[in-house]
Amino acid sequence: MLRKILLAAALTLAAAPAASAATTTAVAVTNVNLRAGPSTLYPAVTVVPTGAAITTFGCVSGYSWCDIGFGPYRGWVAASYVQVVYRGAPVVLTAPLAPAVGISIVSFNRAYWDRYYVAYPWYGR
């Protein structure tokens, strides 16, 4: 029985989204939908207003969509709506810039969905 519990715990941790080494403070460049996944096909969780402080946890490979936190919310926005500070100046996040400001690659998977969206009415879809 203990072996099954340990195996289940190990599988859960392995399925969890990769944790970035560090988070990056950023702002939203315009009002943008915070999505439940890295695509406009996912439902909107909330709207992040222009200039709002966000925390960037990482981006998918290619840096097109980023996993962010905004207040109590967690979700995804297109990288083109994320502004970071690079060499003392605010710049829109791009694929070449992301590693230079410490943004790593993370994945989106079922464990992420189950962790952050179970309380939403569209969760089961």
UniProtKB/TrEMBL annotation:
This protein's record includes keyword Disulfide bond: no
Domain SH3b: 22-86
Gene3D superfamilies cross-referenced by the UniProt entry: SH3 Domains (2.30.30.40)
Secretion signal span: 1-21
Domain of life: Bacteria
Pfam families (alphabetical): SH3_3
Record keywords, A-Z: Signal
Protein name: SH3b domain-containing protein
Organism name: Ancylobacter dichloromethanicus
